[in-house]
Amino acid sequence: MKKESQEIISEERLLAYFHQELEGEERKAVENWLSASEEHRKFYRQICRVGLWYRWSQKESLIDETHALKRLRRIKGRRALVRWRYAAAVAVLLVVVGGGWWWHSRNEAPVMVATEVLPGSPKARLLLSTGEYIDLSQDNVAVKEQNGTMVQWDSVGKIRYQPTLQSETPALLRNRIEVPRGGEFQVLLADGTRIWLNADTELEYPVEFADHLREVRLRGEAYFEVQKDSTRPFVVRVGDYSLQVYGTEFNMNTYDTTHLEVVLVRGCIGFKTDELAPEVKMHPCQVGIANLENGETRVFDADVYPYVAWKDNNMVFVNERLESIMQKVERWYDVEVFFADEKLKELRFYGDIKRYAEIRELLLYLERTSRARFQIDGRTIVIHAK
To answer: What DSSP string runs through 81-108?
Structure first.
């Protein structure tokens, strides 16, 4: 890293950001620094490796249930700036960055090849109402839709809509954003609703909402912060299924074609499997599961953090099957997974790691805490029994 960059953002500050212990202007300053150049982001990824290395070297196994659950229920926004931890981690940084991953070569690292498999990054393409596709990987670009609405996006994965005071056409124009495997993106709709899109996700929505209704269509997974509007309900549709929102935050997962999962963080929502079905109301800290084949729904109380952690760049496992974990890995790292032993799919894990870790960091954790062994061949991961 260049000397002037180090003077702006210190290693200690980057480690604090890695541990999600910065707030407000401090956090914004780091995010602006990261978006400034690929060199900055590359150095930050090295810092992330150090943070994970230090965490694992100090705690032999993260599979301890009591410890894992305690971490999952930590108070949101707490600041635990333990200076000795940063000092130790920075000391390790000098060894890791300067001398390479000597620790992996002396421990039970997965069998790897030279191919580097990196985590997902902001990437998507936008389908305009004209039928034109736009690559959103371009930096700080804007286009004007047919009704005059300005559509702007940046290199850090955010797109926003700025409607005009008077549309140039009364037609209800629609856009669709498509996030591939290994990607993520954020959308700020014309009404102020903010949506986080996970990998392998599509969202279709109006450029400007009608006077009586705000409706979008989803395939994949998204986290919604819906702008409250007492005159226009917000509706999310997945096939015949609809979710009506009353100013709220929630996560919707539609990856499974037979089941739909809704997790309510705050506010109130009601969902039903078709227009004739009665609406089922949900309250904060509840999970709703809808069977898209028979129309049955069930709602239960739960710790919502594991369901929504991806939005804050974490991967959280709470007694989760290895098959489920590897499905997430396939989407986020854009790889293919093959189980040489089908029984390994039933292995269960507890853990909480950063989503931006290299894949070898995640596989090392899974291998050290189970009887599974992971091998990477190009972009294919083969899982064997030890």
So the answer is: --HHHHHHHHHHHHHHHHH--HHHHHTT
133 and 71 share one domain: no
Residue type, 350: Y
Residues in the chain, how many?
386
CB-based contact 374:381 (threshold 8 Å): yes
The answer to whether residues 68 and 133 belong to one domain is no
Which pLDDT tens digit goes with each residue over 139-181?
A: 778 898 988 888 999 878 899 998 876 555 456 899 999 999 9
173 residue type, one letter? L
Q: Give me the CATH number covering residue 344.
A: 3.55.50.30
Residues 288-334: tens digit of each pLDDT: 998 878 878 889 999 899 999 999 999 998 899 999 999 999 999 99
Q: What CATH code is carried by the domain that includes residue 296?
A: 2.60.120.1440
Structure tokens at 340: 């040489």
Q: Is residue 114 part of a domain?
A: no
- Coil vs helix vs strand at 31: helix
**Residue 115 belongs to a domain:** no
7 and 95 fall within a common domain: yes
322 part of a folded domain? yes
Q: Which residue has the tokens 């294919």?
A: 380
232 with 214, same domain?
yes
How many helical (H) and strand (E) elements, i.e. helices and strands, does the chain have? 10, 25
Q: What is the CA radius of gyration of the chain?
A: 22
Structural domain boundaries enclosing 196: 120-209
pTM: 0.70
Task: Please state the domain count of the chain.
Answer: 4
Find all residues with CB under 8 Å of 100, minimum gap 6, and list them: none
Angle at 205 between CA 280 and CA 277, to 5 degrees: 20
Q: Which residues pair with 242 in a beta bridge?
A: 237, 272
Termini Cα distance of the chain: 40
Task: Answer for the pair 245, 235: CB distance below 8 angstroms, yes or no.
Answer: yes
